[in-house]
Amino acid sequence: MREVISSSLSDSEGKPEFDQDLVDAMRWFDLSDHDRALTSELGDIADDVGERIIEAFYTHLLADETASRHFRDDAHIAQVKKGQMRYFRELINADLDSSYIADRRRIGSIHERTGVTPTLYIGAYAFYLNKLANVVLDRMEDDPAKAFSMVLSLFKIAHFDMALALETYADTREEAIKARERELSELPTPVLQLRPGLLLIPVVGTLDSYRARALTIQLLEGIQEHRARAVVLDITGVAAVDSAVANHLIQTMAAARLMGAQPVLTGLSAEVAQSLVKVGVTAEALSTAGDLQRGIELAEHLLGE
């Protein structure tokens, strides 16, 4: 679906192929110029009852304790109501062009960052559409066929609109996750001396190839600086590693042995253990322990040999 709706809304916006992507997306939602024309005829009715619908929605919303926490005070509520009125007015009247789509994606990004959940967003949409549709059908009871066609066109445009926002929710959340992973990958890894000859290196966060190389340097420099004879590498705080990083861990342990230190790997998760097996590591090739305490005990034992 992402390729149909927004394959170029971010990276290709402003380029010639953007218009074709928009055409493809509208075709996917069965949207036509006729739908846009029918919906625009709802403008007077929507302007007439829009504020009343939004007021009714916020009466409904603020009665829910969880939902009401999204608002700081009455001034904030008034500001959001004003923005929502503009949002729905554009749904009725705005051109379905690149500017409209960019604005909808911008709003979706703001919703995600400010904690407006998809449930709250879609709930507000459903409330507005259902109330407006009932008003349209009542006021156009002399021409129910046209009223029904207008409502169907409105719902098609609304679903297109919601899809844009939900795509942006996903994009924004994915970018936030990537940013957090970047932050975690840049966390410093301390080299702790538990006692003379014994080091502990706890690794927390994302362990990618770049950080794995930095870890190797820190470990080897720590062995040299402290004249360590055993080192515990604890990866309890690492959720998963890929095969390349798993292979790098093995090389790090081998390098530690070459420098005269006995390495012990602790805190392996099931995912990390599977990654090690994929690169051909066997239990005999590594000194491992299920948790940090047993790892330190094993290292103490190795020091005593």
From TrEMBL:
<dbReference type="InterPro" id="IPR012292">
    <property type="entry name" value="Globin/Proto"/>
</dbReference>
<protein>
    <submittedName>
        <fullName>Protoglobin domain-containing protein</fullName>
    </submittedName>
</protein>
<dbReference type="InterPro" id="IPR051932">
    <property type="entry name" value="Bact_StressResp_Reg"/>
</dbReference>
<dbReference type="GO" id="GO:0020037">
    <property type="term" value="F:heme binding"/>
</dbReference>
<dbReference type="InterPro" id="IPR009050">
    <property type="entry name" value="Globin-like_sf"/>
</dbReference>
<dbReference type="Pfam" id="PF01740">
    <property type="entry name" value="STAS"/>
</dbReference>
<dbReference type="InterPro" id="IPR044398">
    <property type="entry name" value="Globin-sensor_dom"/>
</dbReference>
<feature type="domain" description="STAS">
    <location>
        <begin position="188"/>
        <end position="299"/>
    </location>
</feature>
<dbReference type="InterPro" id="IPR002645">
    <property type="entry name" value="STAS_dom"/>
</dbReference>
<keyword id="KW-0597">Phosphoprotein</keyword>
<dbReference type="InterPro" id="IPR039379">
    <property type="entry name" value="Protoglobin_sensor_dom"/>
</dbReference>
<dbReference type="InterPro" id="IPR036513">
    <property type="entry name" value="STAS_dom_sf"/>
</dbReference>
<dbReference type="GO" id="GO:0019825">
    <property type="term" value="F:oxygen binding"/>
</dbReference>
<dbReference type="Pfam" id="PF11563">
    <property type="entry name" value="Protoglobin"/>
</dbReference>
